[in-house]
């Protein structure tokens, strides 16, 4: 334990001397024309969530098929919770098969695996696959939409409301560039999703006479190095939209545009934003995901102490060539934590401070679960303490 605490303190001391400054300033005149031919836009860095550029980021607009970012997020969460598996079969209902717009042409009663449905959504933007998965997870699209809007509230988003799982035109269905970037950031925490969104082409029904060719609606995955997602959108009302993500070196950024006039213009605006981010900014990872940073006492548990680890990478964003400043971490632990504790439960926070200003905040989570101690466990613990004191 002493070695662990000492190592932690050394790490904090070193970091407080040489950490780079977080780039959190508002866009200046040199950045205001990054996406002139869009209704709204935002550019953020993935690990910190820092906004590099924004334009009308809170304007409520139709997200079209970018809606499927939330659909895919709920699918990935269900996979993590073991509610479904990738090879599990999903049956297509009459209703799911009736969806118009972009589709993978599912027939009523047709079955595909979750993995195949996810490919159909991520690559081909299949409305029918989206509804089939919504029904699989929630019993009906209506109930799935309730889950979508519940997740919106959990993420603290104020300007998003969903009415379907697809983004097909409907009243009172809207989001914003800011909110979409937050949903994309949450989806990208499920790293497996880019195995689907990064594919330029794939096939469904490979071994049948109905072999179906999927081509990614996001052409940047082929034509911009580092782009591996995420989701396009188009309706006559929304125009051309795109939430894109790209990674170079150790920095991942997310760019969102709403309302471009055509696909060429949409891709040009996003390309300009990505170019700007990678040319001007750098990200430094301070702590990796699952890095142990503290020990926490658990009351009435079968274990007395557990380590708390970072729930995601902790990074700092700075402009290239910017002078290093005094950044220091501050660890805040929950008090009076009693068993039972679930693995992954948030029990603390690590803040990165620039002076007295909090520039980033990351949850610390339990590295393991702790069951509540039985009466006999507590008795043995008390008896051991008594006999130990007696020897002294």
From TrEMBL:
Q: What is its EC number?
A: 3.4.16.4
User: What keywords appear on the UniProt entry?
Assistant: Carboxypeptidase, Cell shape, Cell wall biogenesis/degradation, Hydrolase, Peptidoglycan synthesis, Protease, Signal
Residues of the signal sequence? 1-23
- The residues covered by the Peptidase S11 D-Ala-D-Ala carboxypeptidase A C-terminal domain are 281-372
SMART domains for the chain: PBP5_C
What GO terms are given for molecular function? serine-type D-Ala-D-Ala carboxypeptidase activity
Q: Where does substrate bind?
A: 231
Q: In which pathway does it act?
A: Cell wall biogenesis; peptidoglycan biosynthesis
Q: Which residues are catalytic?
A: 65 (acyl-ester intermediate), 68 (proton acceptor), 125
Which residue ranges traverse the bilayer? none
GO terms in the biological process aspect are:
cell wall organization; peptidoglycan biosynthetic process; proteolysis; regulation of cell shape
Q: Describe its function.
A: Removes C-terminal D-alanyl residues from sugar-peptide cell wall precursors.
Family from the record: Belongs to the peptidase S11 family.
Protein name as it appears in the record = serine-type D-Ala-D-Ala carboxypeptidase
Which source organism does the UniProt entry give? Pradoshia eiseniae
């Amino acid at each position: 334990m002493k070695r662990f605490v000492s190592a932690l303190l050394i790490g904090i001391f070193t970091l407080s001397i040489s950490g780079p400054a977080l780039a959190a300033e508002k866009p200046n005149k040199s950045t205001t024309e990054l996406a002139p031919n869009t209704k709204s836009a935002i550019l953020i860095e993935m690990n910190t969530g820092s906004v590099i550029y924004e334009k009308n980021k809170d304007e409520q607009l139709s997200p079209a098929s970018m809606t499927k970012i939330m659909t895919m997020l709920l699918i990935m969460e269900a996979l993590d919770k073991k509610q479904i598996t990738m090879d599990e079969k999903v049956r297509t209902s009459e209703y799911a098969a009736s969806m118009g717009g972009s589709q993978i042409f599912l027939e009523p009663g047709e079955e595909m695996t979750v993995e195949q449905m996810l490919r159909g959504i991520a690559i081909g933007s299949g409305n029918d696959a989206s509804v089939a998965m919504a029904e699989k997870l929630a019993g009906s699209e209506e109930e799935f939409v309730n889950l979508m809007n519940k997740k919106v509230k959990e993420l603290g988003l104020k300007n998003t409301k969903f009415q379907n799982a697809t983004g097909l035109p409907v009243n009172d269905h809207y989001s914003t560039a800011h909110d979409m970037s937050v949903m994309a950031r949450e989806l990208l925490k499920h790293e497996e999703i880019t195995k689907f969104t990064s594919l330029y082409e794939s096939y469904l029904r490979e071994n049948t006479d109905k072999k179906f060719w999927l081509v990614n609606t996001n052409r940047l995955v082929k034509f911009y190095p580092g782009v591996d997602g995420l989701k396009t959108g188009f309706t006559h009302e929304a125009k051309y939209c795109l939430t894109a993500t790209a990674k170079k070196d150790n920095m991942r950024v997310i760019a969102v545009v709403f309302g471009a006039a055509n696909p060429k213009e949409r891709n040009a605006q996003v390309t300009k934003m990505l170019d700007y981010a990678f040319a001007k900014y750098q990200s430094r990872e301070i702590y990796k995901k699952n890095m142990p940073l503290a020990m926490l006492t658990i009351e009435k548990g079968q274990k007395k102490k557990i380590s708390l680890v970072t729930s995601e990478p902790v990074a700092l964003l700075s402009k290239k060539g910017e002078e290093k400043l005094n950044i220091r971490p501050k660890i805040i632990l929950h008090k009076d934590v009693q068993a039972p504790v679930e693995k992954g439960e948030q029990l603390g926070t690590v803040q990165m401070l620039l002076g007295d200003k909090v520039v980033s905040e990351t949850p610390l989570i339990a590295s393991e679960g702790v069951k509540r101690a039985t009466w006999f466990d507590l008795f043995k613990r008390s008896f051991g303490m008594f006999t130990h004191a007696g020897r002294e």
